[in-house]
Amino acid sequence: MNIVFLGTPEIAKVCLEKLYEKGHNILAVVTNPDKPTGRGNKLTESPVKTFAKSKGLKVLQYESISKEGVQDLKALKPDALVLVAFGQILSEEILSIALPINLHGSLLPALRGPSPIQTAILEGLTQTGVSVMKMEKGVDTGDVILQKTIDILPEDNSSTLFAKMADLGADALCEALESIENGTAVWKSQDHQNATFTKMLTKENAKLDFADTAQNIVNKVRAYNPNPVAFFELDGQKFKVFEAKVVKMENQGFQYGQIALAGAKTGLVIKAQDDFVEIVTIQAPNGKKMLAKDFLNGKKIEVGARV
Question: Do residues 33 and 175 both lie within one domain?
Fold first, then answer.
């Protein structure tokens, strides 16, 4: 099948790699423009661009594909546009050029929107999946051709789940495209009445609220790792939290948000609404990411202090 692939991050690169290995004729790869990163603001290309260049594939980049890329895509005459985490909204004109296929990181109609993988963890789900769907004007509303499920393990965070979903999604895309090519594809409309939605995860809502349940707090830590990273504030300082776990222990009069244990042997434990949360991996301001017990081996935090 002659395809134009549109994607940007690592999860998209994994899918592109699998499509390339399967022998699909990739006419061009469209990815977002290089972005300045790091202290030196060095322009950095996307994982998709790096892979495409390594295989000699044609690379197209637009600030706005709907404004700048229409004629380029029409000239390529693709059979399908394949999208994986591209990061731009496509106009109806773009969508009409060829069959637009999108990989979404949930079992639609659940978790439509920008953060399905993270939100699955945030909501404490034990299973999620991927959906291969036809793109249309609405957000993740198109007919679905194929879905695959995957378990979410208690130790999974967004980083580990993204990696698993990338492999799952790559297989799903290949299977879906093969069914389209051989004429066996069956498209099913979504049950829109049962749709649920996700929001963009931001630094502003990454702050941990210890008035919440311990499990919800731990889920938030998992969902926000590796980005934008959950945090709490103590004495005006911001501490990032990369790993936490629920601890059940006798409450000795602590209120939610109070530090119940703080030592190199006991670790850092904070009272939540119901149980307690142990902060396993932490990063202090201007410090390195480390085990909280190691941090407390050289730094003192007062028991009873409130975050």
Answer: yes
Write the pLDDT tens digit of every residue in 48-73.
999 999 999 999 999 999 999 999 99
- For the chain, what is the domain count? 2
- The model's pLDDT over 216-230, given as tens digits with 9 standing for 90+, comes to 999 999 999 999 999
Question: For the residues of the chain, what is the DSSP string, one character each?
Answer: -EEEEEE-SHHHHHHHHHHHHTT-EEEEEEEPPPEEETTTTEEE--HHHHHHHHTT--EEE-S-HHHHSHHHHHHH--SEEEEES--SPPPHHHHTTSEEEEEESSSTTTTBSS-HHHHHHHTT-SEEEEEEEE--SSTT-S-EEEEEEEE--TT--HHHHHHHHHHHHHHHHHHHHHHHHTT----B---GGG--B-----GGG-B--TTS-HHHHHHHHHHTTTTT-EEEEETTEEEEEEEEEEE-----SPPTTBEEEEETTTEEEEE-SSSEEEEEEEE-TT--EEEHHHHTTT----TT-B-
Mean pLDDT of the chain: 95
Binning pLDDT at 50, 70 and 90, where does residue 42 land?
confident
pTM above threshold 0.90: yes
Residue 256: domain span: 203-295
**pLDDT at site 206:** 96
